[in-house]
Amino acid sequence: QITTLINHKDKPKRSDKTLQAIQRVGQAVNLAVGRFVTVGEAIANENHELKEEMSVACIEARRAGETIAQLTDVASLDHPESDSHITIFTDKTGVVKAARLLLSSVTKVLVLADRIVIKQIITSRNKVLATMEQLEKVSSFQEFVQIFSQFGNEMVEFAHLTGDRQNDLKDEKKKARMAASRAVLEKCTMMLLTASKTCLRHPDCESARINKDGVFHRMRLALEQVIEIVTDSRPNGENEMAPISIYSGIKEFKNKVEGLRENLYFLSKENLSTMLEVILEHTEDFTDSAYTSHEHREHILELSKQAKMELEQLVSVWMQAQNQKTKDLMEDLEVAILKTCQCMNELKREVHSAATSLAADLLKYHTDHMVLKALKITGVEGNLEAVAEYTCKLSEQKEQLVEMCRLLRHVSGTEPLEITCIHAEDTFQVTGPQIISAAETLALHPSSKIAKENLEVFCEAWESQLSDMSLLLREINDVFEGRRGEKRVYLSLPRPGKHNANLKALKPVKLDTEEQAKIAKLGLELHLLTSDVDSETEKWEDQENEIVQHGQGMSSMAYSMYLFTRGEGLLKTTQDLFHQAEIFATEGTKLASALHVLSDQVRDDDKPLLLLEAEKLISMCKQLQATAKASAQGKSATFTKVDACILKTRNVMTLLCQLLPLCCKLLRKNKAGNGCLKPAPPWKEDRIRTGTNARTPERRVETFGIKSLENHVTNMTFLESK
């Protein structure tokens, strides 16, 4: 609204409609500021230490809002230009000043409110820590029950505060770290209960004390990490050193290599060599691992050797091109760039295959939880020798799973998934010894019900983490294959090279800043439509369905075209955009074919609508293809062509938003047994059956088990009353 006022163009003639619109905007700003300030003042009254600062910021915001309302009070003026009353027309700078003051004061209010939220979380954490210290020192069961009830209530409060904060975080990496810390606190709350009860029941048992101490230590670390994320700081001013994965290393390396197309001088050959060395050092995590298969190890070593050779060849051509920029040399450089990137892609594919196949095998092998079952049985029997034997087996299993997490981190594909891998590694690393100490306690006290319950709790945590790993593995595969996570980018783009027949004919150009500004609105509409299409495809149960696959592909291509309008992404030139538009249109035609196949199975009453939409889609895609292929000479004509391509892509995406729910509805009717689809011919049955067996990977929702905490508190209160 403020931007609308500031950008309002002065015109000699002002209609009543214009005057009323300006006044409505001014009043709306003032009302919004009033509501905002009321909340700010209420916060100030509850927090005396920041009351003065908050009150000043609120007064400034209110004053600025009122000034804007006064300057836009123009609807009642017949001739505002001749009136002595100061308005937006006579004092444009006054509106600008008021707007700046308003934005400045609103920002102050938000920053102060944020400080209050952070302080609330820190205060809540301090309460939890203080109660934890009391819990560690209790010597009687009755005292423990009373303090744990208080601890449970404090943890519920902490859970609510940190949950709200997690939702507010914009940084996906911080969000993932917060989710991991809160998951630790949730699981550890139950562990703390049973471990403390076991220690109270068997005060002289060393393994019970070790078990309890481990839980308290882990909770303190998790609480500390939450505060680090909330305050955006680390103890002693240390900088967080994020571990570098092979996936991110290859991604950065390829970006640098491809950057040579634009600029031959922006980095040194030593930089590229160092980057490759770091990547190859990380591949040693795979080649040195006892769990990597011989075949994968050989392939990784072979590709590492090839990568060095390709880089040497690239550097040689690159250095020559710096001295003498001939056409042949530039084409040789293009070939060297393509070969280097292809080699890195193959290396990435190989390490991904090595990590995910190991993970799949291990998770399948350990799915029966035989070692955990054996520990429970031998513990109840009091068989210390057998417990010792199975704890060795659990330690081996722990080492395998920790190694699996380390390798998966290298190929996870996104920072949040990397953090989830690190969290899983820590969980196995810590939970393994805790299960062992709990099993030893049970073996020493085989008749103890509380020791048995304690072992159960730690075993459940282990099983839960294994289950989470199956979901994590699915997500990592989805990101690698382009079905989830980051938007897929289509790499089928023309690159100047020896085999490009149109090399001389093409003169790729970029949009300048003014052109980007003109096309920004259209690009934004395209972006919103890609979100709508993604939202519709998410609703489909069968993610392998041909219609969904084409829809997702078109959405990804439209997204890269949106990025082009912002001067971002892999579509660097107008020629890249036109080529992408052609591929987009081809994908749309394939989708129309899939719709025709569906219409063959649909009953007569649903068939006409589906065929009509399919014909519309084919017509639109043909128009887009014709536009993309049409020649355009000169800057103005090229921009007109860009504008037309984006516009036609937007129209196709709009139709796609209508098509997807329609097809989904027909398929659901069929699944519900309403008979909207005809039986498939026998030759299609196998294909249909295989398609519908595919399930969408469930997204893990990292939540703090507030309900489970409240249940712990209720149970303890009930126990206390007994």
From TrEMBL:
Presence of the UniProt keyword Cytoplasm in the record: yes
InterPro entries listed in its UniProt record: Alpha-catenin/vinculin-like_sf, Alpha_catenin, CTNNAL1, Vinculin/catenin
Keywords per UniProt: Cytoplasm
Protein name: Alpha-catulin
Family: Belongs to the vinculin/alpha-catenin family.
An individual GO BP term: cell adhesion
Subcellular location: Cytoplasm
Pfam families, alphabetized: Vinculin
Gene name for this UniProt entry: Ctnnal1
GO molecular function terms listed in the Swiss-Prot or TrEMBL record: actin filament binding; cadherin binding
A GO CC annotation given for this chain: cytoplasm
SUPFAM superfamilies: alpha-catenin/vinculin-like (SSF47220)
